[in-house]
Amino acid sequence: MNVLIVHAHPEPRSFNRALLDTAVRTLGEQGHQVVVSDLYAMGFNPVAGPDDFSERRFPDALQYDREQKQASQRGSFVPDIQQEIDKLLACDLLILQFPLWWFSVPAILKGWIDRVFVNGLVYGAGGKRFDQGGLRGRRAMLSFTTGCFPAMMDSDGLLGERDVILWHLQHGVFGYSGLQVLPPFVGWAIQYSDEAQRAAYLDAYAQRLRGIEGDSPMPAHPLSDFGPDWRLRPEVASRTAGHRRAAAAPTTRPDL
Amino acid sequence: MNVLIVHAHPEPRSFNRALLDTAVRTLGEQGHQVVVSDLYAMGFNPVAGPDDFSERRFPDALQYDREQKQASQRGSFVPDIQQEIDKLLACDLLILQFPLWWFSVPAILKGWIDRVFVNGLVYGAGGKRFDQGGLRGRRAMLSFTTGCFPAMMDSDGLLGERDVILWHLQHGVFGYSGLQVLPPFVGWAIQYSDEAQRAAYLDAYAQRLRGIEGDSPMPAHPLSDFGPDWRLRPEVASRTAGHRRAAAAPTTRPDL
């Protein structure tokens, strides 16, 4: 497999970095090709704006997604975006490695998504989304650390259910793009962990990655489950209780 | 009221800008004091990093939240952060105005949250969170535009339920900080709307804002609903079916 790991942590000696290093080493040992985008080290610009295109279709007022569509057709993204698009389209597996900040990815990684998951290639262009998305045939996984304990992210936990917190990333970013979503790897409450626990996490992550090719993606509805009104067809909805809980249920337990 | 509006759109002629202008004018007419942080116009830096502090407690390796805690005690944030903290602490109502990009805020706004919602003042420091959060007594609202239609964000819709998509912002960022969350104002499928529809949205937003002081916040569990295991106490959980659906239900319908 070609694996792209997008890494977003400001500190080179962080535990996130140790997880990244573990992934690079382990996946390499398995014979996979690994490419890393270390966003802080690259000084990646996360702010989507008018200078993201070498030419503009609508120069008077910026319509970002429409400019993306044109740039997808004409190859007119600026180099820092095009390079990341090339990496993304070349991968079979995408891993985002980050500390969970405010229930989501750090801004530098959100900006990588805003600028690189472009209209025309990743979605749009005549209905590319979900199982028809531009990244279909590829898989993706979140790997992150938290400041909280696993019980806090159960459905009755203080912060809310893990897959509800991650819905905007797993169903939104990944699912919408056509990526099949593998259950996340979570390093819980890292600031309260000792050396032995951190070593155990690194071991668990390596073990997980050794079998990653055989991992089953989380359940997801294909577009054909939805009617022309964009709602789940009645016969599908009747077997999907609550908030698609059938889809979320298999993976609500912590990894460790 | 003192109102802080944080605005994140790269185009000064955008519909988001028209919503911002409507809010500034309407709230001003009601006698409120309005402060705007226009992040793109300010060139706001969204990338949290080691240069965010004028002195470091742990200079060897960056532990961002621990440095925030110290900076909260010593007033040692760099000026661009301190200015935003001052605006945040001075407000009675916080409005985030943005286009929904990839099921969340644009990166420049995520970075405003990462850098300004600091450990020590907004949360932490002996258990500040949720109804004990550092921003308790204040209210907050999302105001955003989408590329999708309302049915797509119902519980059986293509994208998933609106308040599940927004969970990381409304329950996560706002709720965790102690902010009471007002139902969002949503401009649906703006790229498909005509002038009349846009004018109707601006009128509806103005009308909403004229009555904003009387708006009821969305239901939220106080910390006392959770036991020492960070789970909802059994007697509370039994009346909160599914994923806190009781809390989400009153606001799942579109605004217009």
Any key phrases for this structure?
homodimer; 256 residues; alpha/beta; Rossmann fold; 6-stranded parallel β-sheet; 10 helices
Please provide the count of β strands of chain A.
6
Structural class determined from secondary elements of chain A:
alpha/beta
In the predicted model, the low-confidence regions of chain A spanning at least 5 consecutive residues are 245-256
Strand content of chain A: 5-15%
Q: How would you spell out the order of helices and strands of chain A? A: EHEHHHEHEHHEEHHH
Task: Explain how this protein is built.
Chains A, B: It comes from Pseudacidovorax intermedius. Chains A, B: Residues 237-256 are annotated as: Disordered. The structure is a homodimer of 256-residue chains. Chain A has 256 residues and is α/β, with parallel strands linked by helices. Chain A has a single domain (2-217), classed as Rossmann fold. Helix content of chain A is 36%, strand content 12%. Chain A has 10 helices and 6 strands, in the order E-H-E-H-H-H-E-H-E-H-H-E-E-H-H-H. Chain A has helices at 15-29, 39-42, 64-74, 79-90, 107-116, 162-165, 167-177, 195-210, 234-237, 245-248, and strands at 2-7, 33-38, 93-99, 139-145, 180-181, 185-187. In chain A, strands 1, 2, 3, 4, 5 and 6 form a 6-stranded parallel beta sheet that branches. In chain A, strand 1, helix 1 and strand 2 (33-38) form a beta-alpha-beta unit. Chain A is globular and about 55 Å long. Chain A starts with a strand and ends in an 8-residue tail after the last helix. The relative contact order of chain A is 0.14.
